[in-house]
Every structure is written in C-alpha cells, then in structure tokens.
Amino acid sequence: MVKAIALFSGGLDSILAAVLMRRQNVDVLCLTFVTPFFDARKAQSAIEQINLPLMIQDITAEHLEMLKSPRYGYGKNMNPCIDCHTLMLNLAGKKMEETGSDFIITGEVLGQRPMSQNKQSLYVVAKNSGYPDYILRPLSAGLLPPIKAERKNLIDRSRLLSIQGRGRKDQIKLAAEFGIANYAPPAGGCLLTDPIFSLRLRDLFARQEDRNYRDYELLKYGRHFRVTESCKIIVGRNNADNEAMKKLVTADDLVLKMKSFPGPLVVVPYGQDSDAQIAASLCARYSDAPDDTEEDVICHHHDSSKTIKAKATSKENCRTWIIEG
Length: 325
Description:
Elements: E1 3-7, H1 12-22, E2 27-34, H2 41-50, E3 54-58, H3 60-67, H4 81-99, E4 103-105, H5 119-129, E5 135-136, H6 148-151, H7 169-178, H8 195-206, H9 213-218, E6 223-228, E7 231-235, H10 239-248, E8 254-258, E9 266-268, H11 276-285, E10 295-301, E11 304-310, H12 315-321
Parallel strand pairs: 1-2, 1-4, 2-3, 4-5
Antiparallel strand pairs: 6-7, 7-9, 8-9, 8-10, 10-11
C-alpha cells in the first residue's frame, strides 16, 4: 500500500490535504511538531474529525538551534517561516524514511502567504529540506511540477487540485463536500508571530539568558521588566499567571510576594540578592498596598526567606523598564 507522512497543523488546509490523499487510498500518518512556541492542541482537536493517526514530536532542540540564526531571517516579528518550514520538512523526510513511507504531504497553498508560499519560496524550502522530490502539496499540485510519486503513478495527478491565492472559498467548499464542519481560523498558533512575545524573546537572546527550557515558558506570563543588563523581573498579571509562574520557578530564582496585601507573584530568574529591593518595589507597585507607604515583601531565594521593606516604585520607572515596546 502507498504510504505518506502528512505535516499536520490542524488548520483547514492540512486537514484537506490529508483527506484528499486518503481518498486516493493512501495510508496517511499525520505528524505534528511541538516547541515552546507552538503546541499540538489544534492538531489533536482536528484529527478527531478525520479519523487518521496522529504522531506528536517535540523538536525544541532543533528548532531553537535554527531560531537563533535563521538562514533566511525573520518575518515581521521573530517568525523564521522559511527556515522553520525547511526544518519541518527535513524532519518529516526522516520520518518518511523511518516508516517506509513514499512521500510527504503538506497543506501549503501557492500564493496564500506572499513571502513564504510563493513559487520560489516553495522551491527553496523543498530543496533545502533535502527531500525536494518527495514533497506533495495536494491543494496546489496541479500548478507545480510532479514529484516522484506522481511520476511513478503511485497517486493520480489528475485528482490533485490547483488552488492558489489568499482566499479560502475553494477550501471551504471542499470542506463542506467532505463533511468537515469544524476547523480553526487560519491565523494564530505560533507565538513567534506575536509582537510582544517577540520583544521578550529578543531580549532573552541578546543577554544569553535562555539557560533552560522553562526560560522560554516564562516569556508567556506576566509583565516583563528589564531593569539592568543582568536583571529581568517578571510580575504576574493575575492569579492564572501567578500559578503558572509558581510551577516554573527554581531555587536559583528570587521569588517575592506581599506579606499583608493581595498582589502578584514576582520572579527574578537567576536573580541575585542585590536585585531583591527593586523587585520588591515592583511587587508593591502591582499589589493592593498603598503607593506611599513601605510595606513588607517576603523574598525567597534558595532555601531561605527574608522580609524586605519596600515602597511602590514609580509608574515612570515601570514604563521605562517594561519590555513591551
């Protein structure tokens, strides 16, 4: 039986590409990747509709190596789309070889994204992946050169599509024909396209503070303040942030909270005792404590704790330090 690996994001295009090939009696294994910047939730939700097997692979190490120095640079924020697609196709190609599959399926549509899905970019990505003759884009295959599986008649090229452009009218019509009613909107999913997250990530990279996986996870929560070159302080925005941050802290961090007033959890990753006073002043600023009085802030570091007297830092300082553009 003909077998294929389908790169599967869980978006409508990837759903349709996988289903199109199953309708040609291809044995399709869907593959989705996870990193600190995108997860498998959309793919897991979508796969239930089409009853295909889904494999989830964590590619954090490979992705971070690429992300720090992408050959083709970044998009508007920290999204290295061409290099990211190249990496994913390379890993999908290796999975194809491991499983004895015949080709790779992607949901890419020619011209849907002007920078990363024009004909030249699709060619570059396929070539650099190391598997240029094994990548099938079923939704636009009629507009692209045939791959090896087509030339060997493993699949029927006449049943592949010629969709192009940014509109989704053809895909929505096809979804209705296939009985696919629920699918995610086309945008979102990757934190590297988020401008605030990207600012935080650039700050982390610039100071080589990404020592552990959890340092990327911390970027998702709270307000981030760059106080000095060696001191970043994270202040929880709400209880959900506080609880998430609590699970990520280590003994090397300074962790602060108000003693007598409701307020945020404050974390200084890999902080020094000398950072405690200013962190306490930020803790007071975002708490219910009065602005003009010194209040008790409890600071934990390693196996010890101490109480610091601190007054809320000025709003001007907060605006100067915050990493949000």
